[in-house]
Amino acid sequence: MIERRKSRTAGPLPAEIATAGDARADVRMDGVYFFRSFASYPVSKRLDPGDFSYCFMVRRGNLRMTVDFPEPTSIDLVPGSIVAISGLVPHRIYSLPETDKHPSPDSFPHIPISEQIDAGKDVELLLGVVPSENFALGNLIIGPIYLSRTRFPDCASRIWKAAELLDEEFVGSGEEYGQAIIVQRIAEIIVINMTRSLLADGSGRVLGIVKNRGVISAIRAFLDAPLENWSIDRLARQAGMSRTKFAEEFRRVVGRTPMQTLARLRITLVTRKMLADELSVEEAADLAGYSSAAAFIRAFSREFGTTPLQWRKRHLDEAKAQA
């Protein structure tokens, strides 16, 4: 396990964040980098999975992002949309109408910011990435955090102004003196405004996650290895809580019990593998940790409203029709 660096701060934090510990004070962005990406419709993509914090900014195009954790979420992305999310969270980004021609999403291409914009593509993105071990605040935000020109417009406007500064920094050839420092400062402006939007969110759900470091520790542990043999006791130890306290806090923060959450995450992962690897129902049930195929089918049907074989046949038939 990576040891998190002790945070440093130049000033006090708002009470809402300070209550969660000093980690929220550290908005330094060591190791941050930005890149452009383009895509043509139809799109079926994901951000590269890993222990990263992402800022995903839409300059051109219309997309939908579905996120499986901490609860099922669907976000329609239009020009001006901004999303922050952990690379550990299962998700998919696609264009509408949805297509199954490419059922397994691939990664966005990484294009240097200094390169010419490809105006012929349907989608243009700006993405920022920072390793979570270098970014204390990122370790405590699972996400997604969503801003747009209508949702937290002031924070979104400041972030897009920072993006314009980033573009200007890479105009011309060669690396300017102090460029890495400038990029870090721009990233800090972005994350501070993300945090401001978080504090303005009246739902309390994301704030609840941020405030509970024990629950976050457990969430990150099983997001990193969802197919391991997790139990309430093991998750509680990861959180540094008693079994009862952990179960209560987890449900309060996430909205489901720990095992309900883990079960849904496993089913979602296995569902994707059923298409990509052509798993049998028995193999899928075993991979998801169910004692029998029948138990897996019941759980699958509760989540997707159909049996695994019916679901796969429908998706494969649709893919063939579009080929």
Describe this structure in words.
It is a single chain. The chain has 323 residues and is α+β, with helices and mostly antiparallel strands. It folds into 2 domains: 183 residues, Jelly Rolls (Sandwich), CATH 2.60.120.10; 112 residues, Arc Repressor Mutant, subunit A. Helices cover 42% and strands 16% of the residues. The chain has 11 helices and 10 strands. The chain has a 5-stranded antiparallel beta sheet with strand order 1-9-3-6-10, covered by helices on one side. It has a 5-stranded mixed beta sheet with strand order 5-4-7-2-8, with no helix packed on it. Strand 4 and strand 5 form a beta hairpin. The longest helix has 22 residues. The N and C termini lie far apart (44 Å). The N terminus is likely disordered.
| Count of individual beta strands | 10
Biggest pleated sheet:
5 strands, antiparallel
What's the level 1 CATH class of the largest domain? Mainly Beta
Count of alpha and pi helical runs: 11
Name the beta content range: 15-25%
**CA-atom Rg in angstroms:** 21 Å
Number of domains: 2
CATH topology of the largest domain: Jelly Rolls
The chain-level mean pLDDT equals: 77
SSE string: HEEEEEEEEEEHHHHHHHHHH
Kindly report how far apart the N and C termini lie: 44 Å
**Fraction in helix:** 40-55%
Instruction: Provide the structure class.
Output: alpha+beta
The dominant shape is globular
